[in-house]
Records
---
Amino acid sequence: MTADGTPRPPFVRWWRQGGAFLVAIALGLAMLWAGGAPVFGGLRYERSTIAAGELWRLVSGNLVHASGQHLLVNLAGLALVSLLFPGDYSRREWSLIALASALAVAAGLWWGSPEVEWYVGLSGVLHGVLAAGAIAWWRSHLRWMAIVLTAILVVKLAGEQLLGGIGWSGDLNVIVDAHLYGAVGGTLAGAIVSSRRRHVATGLPPGASGPV
């Protein structure tokens, strides 16, 4: 609402509810891509150099992209997230969910998929963010939307594990395991954040239940 009580235009509401934050992220990703091979080579998840001590790659690999098409696909995913979940989490909570998803991707690839020598892209984190969004919908009145989104994610992830990924990013080999690991991390992070929100709203400590 504006000062005189009239509703704000949809774009203004989107901008205030996190659109500006997502635009800043998109610009940052584009700048990293524009940095070319030196940035790509220095930031990608790369098993051999991580083993040698370059631990920043565990997170930074999610931020670089192998081609302009790869970047555009992930930016489209960011735009979808901003439209689906305006206001479901705060910027701080989204940042924590994204970080948890990124770390889940790195841990999953390191221990669960040791054959993956290198990985780049935001798709694993985006799957985690979508999963966290579904958690928020399950805890709100949007149950039917939560059912639809959860079903889509489960079918997509299961299909990828059985049949492999779709080459939306050009000639790159899609690392479908990263999608699964990111979704698991996002689900756990979303559940924890949503649970803390509920307890703050009700005044109950974590683990306690309300009146019966």
Note: The CA atoms of residues 198 and 204 lie 8 Å apart.
---
Amino acid sequence: MEPQLPRVSMYADLSCPFAYVAHGRWRRIREEFRGRVELVHKCLALEYVNRQATPKVATEIELAVLVRDEPGLPYAPWMSPDGEWPVTIWPAFEAVKCAERQGISLADDLAWAIRVAFFAEGRCISMRHELLELACRTGLDCGRFESDFDSGIAKRLVVDEAREGWERLKVAGSPTFVLPSGEQFASPGLPELDVDEVSGRAAVTAAAGCAGEECLHRYRVIFAAAA
């Protein structure tokens, strides 16, 4: 059996625009770290602490601002009926953990496919049929994934991960990268925004401090430290 690679844990919500950008940056440098370090997705459900569904207006405002500096990031404004906006993200978290049973890299692929489906394709990622279609398209063993997903085998795991992130590790928010050493990096290379849902605008209260390749370099430093 080959030794396990060092793992960086990404505590994040699958419906969080900031996590979408962070994950996209990891995907751009992933091949550089293949065979050196792995990214493990951890459920940091915002609805666990907020006690509400992902707010549609605030999410759309945040994403529209964030994608300005990420022109290659798949994105489209939500064009589906408002009634199809996902009321919960828990099933999507479970799907990623089911994929993880088939491989860390496959779980990363599915997490990315889920984010793209939500932020660029306007798909309701809380629906079973959407998650099954994404899993099969990602290259997972469809039969095994469906069996695991329908069994609820990951239900307790995602709740435990949310509790671990928010209550034990006390991460600052989504996304937070946690190294094997325990060192945390919250929202690296991402701005802080103050959203006004009435005006539909967001003010940058703290700049990202980087742009383009400089931001990617920050991610390289994080993963190199783990490797």
Note: The domain at 7-226 is CATH 3.40.30.10 (Glutaredoxin).
---
Amino acid sequence: MEDNQEIYSYAIKSPYLYMDAATALTIFRRAITPYTVFNDDEWTEFIKHLSFSKLKKKQHFATADTICDKFAFVVSGSVRYYHIINGEDITSYFSFEEEFTSSYKSFLTRTPTITYIQALEETRLINISYDAFQQMLANPLIAHKMERFGRLVAEHYLCCYEDRVASFITQSPEERYLQLLQTGREILQRMPQHYIANFLGITPVSLSRIRKRILEPVIK
């Protein structure tokens, strides 16, 4: 229990969490239930391999041309994923509270990522490093749970990617925006408009026109 207590006391004393570590880990444990369920002994072993961190606004979790050495659970805050294309910053995705963030291909293959991941506001994370993940896969107590956890997280990333690609093939920009209104209000409330336009694959001017067309029947 000493190692376990060390993690708790570290997080409580540090400025890295806006809540106490026990609460943050309870949220994390609940959030990963769809991926795997740890019994108490397994959970005690699992959290020995976690670390806590904080990103300031605009600080990067990952940068292009480097290996993304960890994946993380967003306790609070948000991050955006973007690429630099012909010198232009293009936002492609977001992650919010109780979601994972990583350049997962880079994490798994140990190859440099092409993606930047940047905090849009002060963001607090629970991290699993690549080395820690490998140690857990070799741990007899939790290896089978970690194999399932890793597989289901990878499947989640694949489904998100397929949905994203399909939306650009099957939907108009206005349809994508309407879907965002239904399922992604967090983005609309917390993100700058030019990031939302990037996410939808349109210009800020086009986004303004779409919003105007949608609002006109309401105003009338």
Note: DSSP finds ten helices and eight strands in the chain.
